[in-house]
Structure formats: structure tokens, C-alpha cells
Specification:
210 residues; 31% helix; single chain; 7 helices
Length: 210
């Protein structure tokens, strides 16, 4: 099965167009003000309105107030929600949208426990653990800790670049890979050539059967 690709942290229609042209399956929009990749709701609506069929839009939130998520959804027809904070399953599943949960991997990480805590999650995104930052660290966790398959799709994130994504896929065989900083020319600034190179390396692994 082909590894899916999400390009996260897009802030302009031009970056979304580049991601789609490269062959991305999904684009991510960050609704978390402290992030350098945070996008205004009006801009997010423009980006989503320009997406073609079969490219999913994902909204990323970190410990949001319920009214804030609803406010975004009133203006942006997101296909899926991604939660990076301490939200519980009841909260995440209360917006009439499918969601998946991001989890930080450290020495105490137990995928079976996490899976049980989020029974309605469509998948689990595994990222480098940081006690302060909620994703976007640019760091990879030890891929040897990537767990055996469970009932939910597993998404690999954290420190991925065009140079290492092939190795990452061969080692972990995830359902999908999620990249943000690894395709930027500067913090928060997407680079179209890096986006193309990243997707190309993912497709190369699919073609060779990793």
C-alpha cells in the first residue's frame, strides 16, 4: 500500500497549489497562534476553496476552546481535525468531523494505552515528544521505537526531510508521513522545490516496494 503524504503548515494558496501539484494527499492548516505556521481563518478558507477533489484538508489544533474550533469550521470546510494537546476523545470527536490524535513518543510511550484512550480517532500521529512544544520541533524520535501495526493507521512525523523520508518509510512502513519544517526554506516559509523533492522520495519508495 502506498504511503500517503501530508504537507502541513501551509499559509498561502501558492504553497497549497505546489503541494497538490507534487502529489500530496492532504494539506495541513495550523490554527494555533503561537506557531510560526499559524494561518488566519480567512486565508485558510481561500486555501481550502482551491483544493481539487481527493486532496484532504486537515485543521490542526492545540488545546483549543470548543468555540474556537466551531468558529473555524463555520468558515473553513475542513475534512478532518488533528489535535496536538491534551484533548480527550470525547472532545475530539464532538465536532461532526473525523479526527486523529498526535502523540509524543518518549521512553514512557505505550501505543496500546494511547489507542484505548482515543477509540474514535481515525489514526494516530507519532511525533517527537517535547514537554513544551506541541509538534513542529523539527526533531525525529528514534524510529526503532515505531510500534508494530495496530488497528488504527499510524502516521509518522517529526524531523522528516527529502533526505531522510525514504529511510524513514523503509524502517517504519507507516500509513502516512507528515512534514512541515522539512520542506521550508525558512521557519514557516514553504519551499516548492523541497515539497516536490519530498513527495518524489515517498513515491520512489512506493515504486521500489521498500
Amino acid at each position: 500500500m502506498r504511503t500517503r503524504v501530508k504537507i502541513c503548515g501551509l499559509c498561502s494558496p501558492e504553497s497549497a497549489t505546489a503541494a497538490v501539484a507534487a502529489g500530496a494527499d492532504a494539506i495541513g492548516l495550523v490554527f494555533y497562534a503561537p506557531s510560526p505556521r499559524a494561518v488566519e481563518v480567512e486565508m485558510a478558507a481561500r486555501i481550502v476553496s482551491g483544493l481539487p477533489p481527493y486532496v484532504s484538508s486537515v485543521g490542526l489544533f492545540v488545546n483549543p476552546a470548543r468555540r474556537d474550533v466551531l468558529g473555524v469550521l463555520e468558515q473553513v470546510p475542513l475534512d478532518m481535525l488533528q489535535f496536538h494537546g491534551e484533548e480527550d476523545d470525547a472532545f475530539c470527536s464532538s465536532f461532526e468531523r473525523p479526527y486523529y490524535k498526535a502523540l509524543g513518543v518518549n521512553d514512557c510511550f505505550d501505543l496500546r494505552v494511547a489507542e484505548a484512550q482515543y477509540p474514535h480517532s481515525r489514526g494516530l500521529l507519532l511525533d517527537a515528544y517535547d514537554p513544551v512544544l506541541k509538534g513542529g520541533t523539527g526533531r525525529a524520535f528514534d524510529w526503532a521505537r515505531f510500534p508494530e501495526p495496530v488497528s488504527k493507521p499510524l502516521i509518522l512525523a517529526g524531523g522528516l526531510t527529502p533526505e531522510n523520508v525514504g529511510k524513514a518509510i523503509r524502517q517504519t512502513q507507516p500509513y502516512a508521513v507528515d512534514v512541515s519544517g522539512g520542506v521550508e526554506s525558512a521557519r514557516g516559509v514553504k519551499d516548492n522545490e523541497l515539497i516536490k523533492a519530498f513527495v518524489r522520495e515517498v513515491m520512489r519508495e512506493h515504486a521500489t516496494g521498500f
